[in-house]
Amino acid sequence: MSHLQSYLQELQESLQEFKISGNHKQNVERADIFLGFKDEQDDAPGLIINYTYPDHVSLSSRIYSLDPSIIDKYIPTENDFINYSFYLEDLSLDTCFAFVLLFLRSKKLPLDQLPTKWLNYINHWEQEETRSTGLPFHSWGCLHNALGHAYISYQQVGQEIVTNDTKFKKGFIQCLRFIISVLLADELDPSNLTEVDCEAYQKAMTFLRFEEQKYLQLLKHSITVQLELPVKDSDLKVLVDALITTEKVDFKGVLKHFARTDTQNSWTQNGFGLLAVYKPESGRNISDFMISVDPHLNVHLKDLQMKLEQLEQEARQKYRIDIEDAVPAWQDEIGNSTLISSPKDPPTFLTWKQVVHTIWELYCPARSIKVRGYRHDDTFGHLCTMDQCLPLFTDPNIRKHLTIAKWDAQYNYSTIVFSPTMKKFIAACAANPFDFPKLEDLPNESDFDMIELSGGVAVIHKQGIMLLDDWNIELDDWVIEVMDFSRYVDEYQSLLQQFINTRKIINRITKQIDSLYQDFSSGNSPSRKELDKLNLQTTKQKIEIRKAILESITTNPDPNLKTFREKVEQHWGMVSELEKLYETVVETEKILNNFAEARTNSLIQFITLYGFPMVLFAGFFEFVFGDFAQTFPGGIFLGVHFGGLALFLLLSLIGVWILDRIVKRRPPFQTKSKKKKSTSRPTLNKKQDINNRSLPF
Fold first, then answer.
1. Smaller CB count within 10 Å for the chain: N or C?
2. Where does the record place the region Disordered (predicted)?
3. Is 106 helix (H, G, I), strand (E, B) or coil?
């Protein structure tokens, strides 16, 4: 067994005996060792180890290069390592590995025997490198962070929020066991861990699987866009996927790794190159804003840091907060402009909404695209961005716009990449051509259509259309124009007029139906003549609607124009609304016909009830009138037998009453069915019967 292995075994056996705390301590005593806390002090009673960039990229690299005299001064060989009190900033891989390195150096292990392969991995991890540190479930850094962060919690002691040291030490023991197991298996690759014979490794895998589920859930409530970021030491820009989110639950330090290696949910299939995270009241009641980019992309956030710093200074001056000019509020955490974070003391005066708006305004992919707007005289205007391009036609009353532009490829040698964000931006410009679209103003992909045409594209939104010619080739004295704008202008004007006519038809028929409804609601039922007039009116309405639908059918053989027209009609809802209106008119006609039939049936019923008895008994009482009445004695006056007449009327009324009862009486089979059903039901008391009635079945 080598010296390294024997020391690691010794360390593992004594883990329970170490005095570990995750809280800061003001007074430094002789037996105190601080890792990550405080700034280094040569005259301090205890040992304080920290690092500053660019001298060192990690706490572990600082301890690796620590002068032996410092170790001899604070950790003499005769003193046992367990006699010291350790104050650790966190349970990250860097901090825990730094503890192991300090232990090995206190044992005078030669530097050439220290595990440099693992140290190099930690340096890459601390520099935010996700490509070289492995996929999440095979990454030593991800597994360790998921394990360590699971044991970090805070509690309130008096007026102060502090780390729970009991759980912190349990986490420290698990993390050290995991690190020691990995170091003892020297043949393992830290960026491709497959299986480690250690209980802590299994726990780390379990915690990481749970973090993956939280990440997938987080994606559903986050903003995913494509942004153009500046390349280091270059004027070029590169398109990257960005994830903007609020981390309401702690992701154990692995959110960044999941996002940057997510090839399935990113449009470029290269992971999310920019990550902007808002942590409300993270840790010690301090809200935290953090924006980072993948170092492997070779992009930077210098301009973003400068802009946020400017906004922070303005906000602090507004609230009259004294600031130190030499210390920037928004810190470049690593020193290479790939990770910037909000100030902590005092905390930032900016809102998360301001930060997100600043990111969007700086890195919106449409910023580098310049176009020339098409004008009525068949010429093109000056260079401008798409949001500055004025519409060719606009109608504020019906909120419809047509904007036509030609892309200028010679400006800045830019190229148009129709990413989902670019499509949404063009759709937002088409819907509201007078303002720069904010990030929250971008429509959903279901709210518009983008179709490819000969020579360009058309983005069709219910509130506007933008035609973009991205194929024109402009030389010195001539232009090759592939896209004929005039045909689409004519088609748009035809569609606009059709839309206006459709709205007029819909409004007129809606008013007529509303008027009819008001008449029926107030009890003013129409007469027979009025019903005939209404039926004629609905027939005209159906013909008018069908005529409008037929007019929407294009006979132009150009497939591009046909597709353009169909998509515009779909988003403007012209044909669908006419179809619905036609169905409404047909239903109204049925209602009127049913009303007329009901009135006729009522008349027939009246004739049946009152006419049939009189006709039935009239033959038996012919003696009441005329000469025949003279043959019957009594009750004759003015040639009328009033006794017979009274008997005739009485029997007729009795017949009317009997017929009325027969018509209004329920069918016998219904009564029998109910009785049969009720007799088959078991006898229940009153309370049971009430409970039974409340059942849905």
1. C
2. 669-697
3. helix
The neighbour count for residue 5, using CB atoms within 10 Å, is 13
| Contacting residues for 500 by C-beta, under 8 A, at least 6 apart | 398
Calculate what percentage of the chain has a pLDDT beyond 70. 80
Q: Alpha helix locations (H) across 75-198? A: 93-106, 116-126, 140-149, 165-184
As a whole number of angstroms, the distance between CA 438 and CA 419 comes to 17
| pLDDT of amino acid 8 | 93
Same domain, 289 and 244: yes
**Cα–Cα distance between 630 and 638 in angstroms, integer?**
11
Same domain, 192 and 334: no
If residue 33 lies in a helix (H) or strand (E), which one and from where to where? strand 32-35
What is the distance between the alpha carbons of residues 305 and 330, in angstroms, rounded to a whole number?
A: 6
- How large is the C-alpha radius of gyration of the chain? 43
Token output for 553: 């059918």
Can you give the length of the chain in residues? Answer: 697
- Specify whether the CB–CB gap between 182 and 188 falls below 8 A: yes
Structural tokens at position 194: 């497959």
Domain count, the chain: 4
Write out pLDDT tens, residues 509-552. Answer: 788 778 777 777 777 777 777 777 777 877 887 787 777 767 66
**Mean pLDDT computed over 619-640:** 54
Q: Considering the domain boundaries, does residue 397 fall inside one?
A: yes
Domain identity same for 414 and 346: no
Dump pLDDT digits (tens) for 408-455.
766 655 678 899 999 999 999 999 888 899 999 899 999 999 998 887
How many whole angstroms separate alpha carbon 100 and alpha carbon 7?
Answer: 10
Best CA proximity match to 7, nearest among 101, 118, 83:
101
> Which pLDDT value is given to residue 38?
72
Distances (CA, A) of 101 to 66, 149, 399: 10, 21, 68
Q: What is the value of pTM for the model shown?
A: 0.74
Indicate the residue among 316, 336, 363 that finishes a domain: 363
Q: What is the spatial distance between Cα 360 and Cα 229, in angstroms, rounded to a whole number?
A: 11
Residue 316, phi then psi, degrees to nearest 5: -70, -35
Q: Give the residue with greater pLDDT, 344 vs 95.
A: 95
- Is the separation of the CB atoms in 132 and 140 below 8 Å? no
The pLDDT of residue 316: 82
The region, left, alpha or beta by phi > 0 then psi within -120 to 50, assigned to residue 226 is beta
The token pair that represents 295 in the structure block:
């170092």
Mean of the per-residue pLDDT values of the chain: 81
Distance, CA of 352 to CA of 382 (rounded, Å) = 36
What pLDDT shows up at residue 87? 93
pLDDT band at 25 (very low <50, low <70, confident <90, very high): confident
Q: Using alpha carbons, list the distances in angstroms from residue 202 to 210, 355, 401.
A: 13, 39, 60
Q: Which of 559, 576, 597 is the last residue of a domain?
A: 597
Beta-carbon count within 10 A of 306 CB: 13
